[in-house]
Amino acid sequence: MYRKPVLLKESVDGLLVKPNGVYVDVTFGGGGHSKAILDQLIDGRLLAFDQDDDALENAFDDDRFTLIHSNFRHLKNFLQLYQAVPVDGILADLGISSHQIDDATRGFSTRFENLLDLRMDRRQTVDAVEVLNTYNEDDLISIFKFYGELKNARQITRLIISGRDDKKIETTNQLKELLQKCAPKHKDQRFFAQVFQALRIEVNQELESLKEFLEHSLDVLKPGGRLSVISYHSLEDRLVKNFLKSGNFEGVVEKDFYGNPITPFNLVNRKLIIPTDQEIELNNRARSAKLRIAEKK
User: Fold this and answer.
1) Cα→Cα distances 195→35, 219, 237, 241, Å
2) Is 3.40.50.720 the CATH classification of the domain at 8-98+206-296?
């Protein structure tokens, strides 16, 4: 197992696990959330997804458990393959795992000097090196503006294009040195975190995958089944919030002939669930976590 999972009790309790139910953990990682679900099952079933091959080493030797080496955007197809539809509950802990951050070879952290990889699934061909060295100016501006929420996206892009003309950008330190002049004073750590977030989202197509997963979750959940989702930045959380509220990603609630809202979920928590100060002290990664839980109508 990696570090203790974020909002463990709150996210698993929100599923109302039944001993004979069928559950899915779409972000297996170190297996913390999955173990907490499995501990409550008797003759139930748990399927888990993870696209990172490192996570496969954490699989449980348990007849009730199946680990699927795939992105959760393929949720529906694999659950049908394993004859596990419909399900009673789905849990997702979005974002990057502490293990991926702490592994210098993966290029996820600004703390280490290594190749700019940033792939969660190392079977895919596009990595951050390719993005930085082959994408055109408009595409790079969009990535840093929308995925990194960086106001100086144009300046960042110009420095990258100018730098790659001289030498291919391949390492974390190369990129940091290149962009140092546009990093705000005393806020450079946050600035580079946003730059790396933008690249990571693009490399892994995270927002597109999240949208597909949410749509699939609605298809595979039983009426009364629950969806428990932990997000870490506003781009993810906005998609989750809008979808749970309205069934679409714009957050527009449609109404029937009588003016009653047509929504696919009942919100279990209208107020965001966030970690306690004690949890944040024990696990710094929890500081930006937001939990939303909904029940399918």
Assistant:
1) 34, 35, 19, 24
2) no
Interatomic CA distance for residues 25 and 58, integer angstroms:
14
CA torsion 180-183-186-190 (nearest 10°) is -110
Instruction: End-to-end CA distance of the chain: give it in Å, rounded.
Output: 35
Radius of gyration for the chain, computed over Cα atoms and rounded to the nearest angstrom = 20
The whole-angstrom separation of Cα 250 and Cα 236 is 13
Share of residues in the chain with pLDDT > 70 (%) = 93
CA distance 154 to 161: 11
**CATH homologous superfamily of 103-204:** Putative methyltransferase TM0872, insert domain (1.10.150.170)
pTM reported for the whole predicted model = 0.92
Spans of all domains in the chain: 8-98+206-296, 103-204
- Token readout for 191 is 């600035």
Contact 218, 79 (CB under 8 A): no
Q: How many CA atoms lie within 13 A of 132 on its CB side?
A: 30
- Cβ burial of 57 (10 Å; 0-12, 13-18, 19+) is exposed
- List Cβ neighbours of 258 (8 Å cut-off, separation of 6 or more): none
State the DSSP string of 96-151: --HHHHH-GGG---TTS--B----SSTTSS--HHHHHHHS-HHHHHHIIIIIS--T
CB within 8 Å of 278: residues ≥ 6 apart: none
pLDDT, tens digit, 9 for 90 and up, residues 128-182: 999 999 999 999 999 999 999 999 999 999 999 999 999 999 999 999 999 999 9
pLDDT, mean of residues 253-259: 92
